[in-house]
Design a protein that fits this description.
Length: about 260
């Protein structure tokens, strides 16, 4: 009886042990899968390029950027691509793009559209273009980036550069971590993204797309923004923070719902 009982317990123990091992193995595979998926997401490359264009070259440069953007967004490896000029500086143009990874961006740089933009940049700019590579915090999906304003909207796009005082950057990120879901849930918000500028963990940029100026004014009076405004008014290197604002007018791809 004792032997039989021992064998029974041993058999049961082996069965349980096997189940545990299978579970652990499955769990490990799941964790590895999560890591791989996370790695793929974090490898996405985000690039912002500012061009200061000679006045007589602005029309041609815009058309060249339009072609670049149009071709970019047809690529399965592109997350988003948009082009703007600054409301108060029409010859200052911005190209904002995101790709699945660096290799895909490099591959696209070999296309005729990219080569044309590069060639024109050599003769059409007042000074060399300025490139910002950024790391998106609270990153969006491709589908969220491709969300567009409606035809009846009077779209407003705001970009804000923030140069935080050393030692306060974590506080800034924590404030946005709390506020971001609420900002993105505002009815007048199309896109809202905070990014850290590569090479300096105290420099950030926000990208905010609203359906109208009324939606932007609503955002400025939205209670969750109060701690962010208080931070911007007291903890950046060179106040006022409004000096870092850029009001952008989209000219490509201009897709609408």
């Amino acid at each position: 009886m004792k032997t039989t009982t021992y064998k029974s317990i041993t058999k049961k123990g082996l069965t349980i042990a096997t189940a545990v091992l299978l579970f652990m193995s499955g769990n490990a595979k799941a964790q590895n899968s999560i890591k791989i998926k996370t790695k793929v997401l974090t490898e996405a490359i985000s690039k912002m390029t500012m061009y200061e264009v000679k006045p007589e070259q602005v029309t041609l440069f815009r058309e060249t950027l339009k072609v670049y953007v149009k071709h970019s967004i047809t690529s399965k490896d592109n997350i988003m691509a948009e082009a703007f000029y600054e409301q108060n500086k029409p010859n200052t143009l911005w190209l904002i793009e995101r790709w699945n990874d660096k290799k895909q961006l490099e591959r696209f740089s070999e296309t005729s559209e990219s080569k044309s933009l590069e060639a024109l940049s050599k003769k059409a700019l007042i000074k060399p273009s300025k490139i910002y590579y950024v790391k998106d915090l609270e990153p969006l999906t491709k589908e969220q980036w491709r969300k567009s304003s409606k035809k009846e909207d009077d779209q407003l796009v705001i970009m804000l550069f923030v140069d935080a005082k050393k030692g306060t950057e974590k506080e800034f990120k924590d404030l946005y971590h709390i506020a971001m879901p609420q900002f993105r849930s505002e009815p007048g918000v199309v896109t809202y993204q905070l990014s850290e500028i590569n090479g300096d963990d105290t420099q950030f940029v926000t990208y905010e797309k609203f359906r109208s100026n009324d939606a932007f004014q609503y955002h400025l009076h939205f209670p969750p923004i109060k701690p962010v405004i208080e931070y911007l008014e007291t903890k950046i290197k060179t106040p006022p923070f409004q000096n870092g604002l850029h009001n952008l007018i989209e000219f490509a791809p201009l897709t609408r719902e």
